[in-house]
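Question:
Now give any protein.
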Amino acid sequence: MENSGLSKDNIDLVICSTATPDVCVPTVAANIKKELGIKSAPAFDMNNNCSSFVYAITVAVLFKW
């Protein structure tokens, strides 16, 4: 976020794409959200193995409020 010039208030959605999460509950995305101090954005993991990155990018592009 520092390099992009964005603040945590600019984050609308947190998606983590992983096939090997450290824990299942809470999700990795929820932990990332907490560490960044993001309050209002939804957060979820996409655990689709090798294709999860492609799915996550697709969901992020299609995400609209």
In short: The two ends are 21 Å apart (CA to CA). Strands lie at 14-17, 43-46.
